[in-house]
């Protein structure tokens, strides 16, 4: 016998390799009942919560924010205008949410000694409502609760703010808004009073500063005016000298006298300019910068350049003096009138709609509550199903099975048709075009090519655990070999829970393998011919015995297999599961090809790897795997399920027909 050698690879938990979105979608539809139960449960819970939730009331109020615009101090009448800036409206909205306002409301007379302030909410049957007296609630805690009761909304493109207070007591809701508006009005008035005091102080300080500035500017302007007078004389004398130079020689007495007079005027101009520079630091800085620019100017042209600078500077100082004089006059006028708050609006808002007392409740909203709990139940159902998919220890796809075991899947068996007789029917006895019969033929072809010629005669069909459909696979595989004209023997070697009699209709108590190995009953009296095919012969399990492992591990089994291989072209052995019992190990050593059947979405990964380890420890390597219980494809022939679909719900045969139970 040729045993395939392969080092054992310990099982490692894998991520859901080979599982795509469509796999989880199919898992969702398979577990749809979980989603449906949680969804209906959420709906019923929402209905129950709504029925036990106390009614809630809302009080509404609307205020209009105002501002005063004062253009100049000499405006005699104030003009009230609407605030149209989004920033100002949002600022007012945020001020109405300040904790300090609500603390003032909590300390006010409306809530100082008032009980029943905690709103009533849903209480579970095992819970207890909490409504302490006012003495046990601090002002800070009550202010925090009030902030949760009140909502401030700004109507866009308007100056209106809507205030809404919600509470189970309509009077508490109304009084909350009444106290909030009153507290907001007091806070704005206190700020206005403070701003009036600041305005008086500002006027007095500004008037003194502006008066000193005006005196300094007046002195500087007087000196500049003297410089300007000298500059006019110098400019006139320059014109006279220019005319005389055209008529007379340079040493003409009148011309010489005129030039000497020009030098005297220039010296006086420089002297007056020095007095201006020494007047203040501002003038000194200004002329220091200008002197730096005149360094490269010719000496005869420096005086004319300075004259131009004096003219320009004098004009600037005159305009500054006029501006300061106007500001000073305005301040003196306001101070003289004694109305230091002029230009400040005493009231920042108007009450458009005062807080109302709600006549009917606005809640609880049944649609909102039921929808919320229904959606929560739906989300929980989806999450629970996905969690099952991620934590599922079983193999669910063919690709995942091949990745886990590093073995090829030589057959993929779809779920049988959903009728009561389907589990015990042979696929090849039905319509030759159905999915199961096609999958059996595919398995037969795969095993024929995978098994070596000298070892392709005997096939051991086993599984890791019970209930995976190995007996159904073995019976249909044997029948498929017989239908292609090969003498085939099907041995029922599952001595603890035989099942082949249900497929082929022979007596369960017929003599079989245990009778031959135990009491040496002749083979001719045991082997039966099947009515399913003239080329198919059956070797029943025989009488139930308590020592099945010892019988199969004895010396008579190898000699039996040698004799049977001489008479038959193919031998298919239906053996016991590998993990629960050790009955299949001696048969695996004798079989030419071992095939391991795994049921999708049922067989745990650890059980598969445990079965492979048992085989490999006994120097036996399976030639391939069979993926059983895949969903039926939608096409007539349908090979698409092979690598993509998750396992189905149905099994290859009845739920109790392949389950292992220890007897005796």
Strand sequence of the main sheet, in spatial order? 6-13-12-7-11-8-10-9
Q: Give the radius of gyration.
A: 53 Å
Mean pLDDT: 79
Shape: elongated
How many separate helices? 20
What portion of residues belong to β-strands? 5-15%
Poorly predicted runs are: 1-18, 68-84, 339-345, 636-664
Per DSSP E runs of 2 or more residues, the count of β-strands stands at 13
Helicity, in percent? 40-55%
Structural class: alpha/beta
Largest beta-sheet characterization: 8 strands, mixed
Span between termini: 35 Å
How would you describe this protein?
The chain is 50% helix and 12% strand. It contains 20 helices and 13 strands. The protein has helices at residues 21-30, 32-52, 86-95, 99-107, 139-149, 170-247, 253-277, 281-293, 299-337, 366-391, 398-405, 435-450, 470-483, 500-504, 513-519, 548-552, 556-567, 584-590, 605-617, 641-644, and strands at residues 57-69, 79-82, 150-154, 160-167, 349-353, 409-414, 458-463, 488-492, 528-529, 536-539, 570-574, 593-599, 624-630. The strands form two sheets. The protein has an eight-stranded mixed sheet, with helices on both faces. Strands 1, 2, 3, 4 and 5 form a five-stranded antiparallel sheet that branches. Helix 2 runs antiparallel to helix 10, helix 4 crosses helix 6 (170-247) and helix 12 (435-450) packs across helix 13 (470-483). The radius of gyration is 53 Å and the shape is elongated. The two termini are 35 Å apart. Residues 1-18, 68-84, 339-345 and 636-664 have low confidence and may be disordered.
